[in-house]
Amino acid sequence: MRLHSGNPLSAGRVFVTLAAGLAALSPAIGQKRLSPDVPAFRADSALVLVPVTVVDHRGAAVNGLARDAFTLTENGVQQQIRSFNEQDVPVSIGIVLDVSGSMRKVLGTAKESLRAVMRDADPADEVFLNSVSTRPRTHSGFTRDFDEILRRVSQEDAQGNTALIDTIYASLKRLRSGVHARKALLIISDGMDNHSSHSKEELMRCAVEADAQIYTFAVGAWSRAAKPIELTEEKQGLSLLEELATKSGGMNFVVRDRRDIPEAALSIGQALRNQYAIGYVPHDKNGDGKWRGIRVKVSGSGLRAYARTGYRIERDID
Predict the structure, then answer these.
(1) Which residues, 6+ apart, have CB-to-CB distance to 216 below 8 Å?
(2) What is the pTM of this model?
(3) 241 part of a folded domain
(4) pLDDT over 70 percentage in the chain
(5) Assuming Cys at both sites, which of 82, 98, 166, 250 could form a disulfide with 196, CB separation 3.0 to 4.6 Å?
């Protein structure tokens, strides 16, 4: 099993550009919606907030670190950390479950992976479920009825083509309407796609500019006896999921069988519950729309920081 990286939320008058895409899918499970969380900082603060997850060499979340344990650079220039705190707050979570024909041999493992993650969910979290088949399918709007989500999943069979990229794209757009400031997308799939209208490049542009961390369960029935073309497709699928997680600040797990599930689910649960929020004011406030690369480092033997790789400013901030 492997895990991988990336993560910022923007606040104040820092605006992250999002690519235009599919309209939000209509919800199937109703629930009374709350108002979106109010940002923790003043609207004129020009503060960029970067959520950071820190894990040790075993993949366990690390709490209690001090501000001076972190170094943050933007475009290679070290930034002064203006705000710092640890967070354990509710999360708005989107779930993308692949139930296309390519998942026929491993759908049981995929469903068990989702059940394991949902067992660790905070009752205050909210989730929605979209599934992947020939077209993106909506099974629920945001809800806190986790049992209903799992009931719907239990009825799914693997069939159809695979519009994975389109489903992730639509899910990232829908995630923006979540009531909680913290947002995450969970993708359970083999990563393969053969029926999407959006390109991988369009998806990556949307993913790196969304205020959400992406956690991926790469579930597959990989075999060394597979044909060369099948091995190529499997490699491309694994690469897609890994890149989505890395660039968004989430983690990627390769689940080869049910024995890998408990550790992966625990790591995701800890990452969602335990984060640091680092705030800084960029030296360069020019809203030129160019990509600003972010890198977060943490001191300490065997420690690794997961943070988004960057953002854009649409217009000047002052």
Answers:
(1) 186, 187, 188, 189, 191, 241, 242, 244, 245, 250, 251, 252, 253
(2) 0.82
(3) yes
(4) 83
(5) 166
